[in-house]
Design goal:
single chain, 5 strands, rod-shaped
């Protein structure tokens, strides 16, 4: 028969059972195959390089400034928050429609800049840009 009783039961078994080791290695291989596409979730894109230069602002422009206290200035004239939308609506009716440049102080709460953008959108202005300072070398 296939089973025989050994007479020397004190002998150390010198053979390594490879089956569990192969099973573990196959499971690890499958895990790595499945997780590698998930780890590399970014899309590789070669971004273009450009030097920044000052934009030539067209003559039909509006500047809306928001100072550090949250006060609105339309073309350097103080405007209350309640009258801002009406003043912007009058400017939006001009032909060609001017582009609005929003200059927000870096210390102003973002809410005030968002209110200016909302007023411009409700007034019908469709071309809105932000003015920032360039980084100094």
């Amino acid at each position: 028969m296939a089973f025989e009783a050994r007479e020397d039961s004190d002998e150390v078994m010198s053979e390594i059972n490879m089956t569990p080791l192969v099973d573990v290695m196959l499971v690890l291989l499958i895990i790595f195959i499945i997780t590698m596409p998930v780890i590399q979730h970014t899309v590789k894109v070669a971004l273009p390089r450009a030097s920044s230069s000052r934009d030539q602002t067209p003559p039909d422009k509006l500047q809306l400034s928001v100072d550090a206290q949250g006060q609105f200035y339309l073309d350097q004239q103080a405007v209350g928050a309640d009258a801002l939308q009406e003043r912007l609506r009058a400017q939006a009716a001009r032909e060609p429609q001017p582009q609005l440049y929003i200059r927000g102080d870096k210390n102003v709460p973002y809410e005030r800049v968002a209110q200016a953008m909302t007023a411009a959108q409700r007034a019908g202005l469709s071309r809105i840009g932000f003015v920032t300072e360039g980084q100094r070398p």
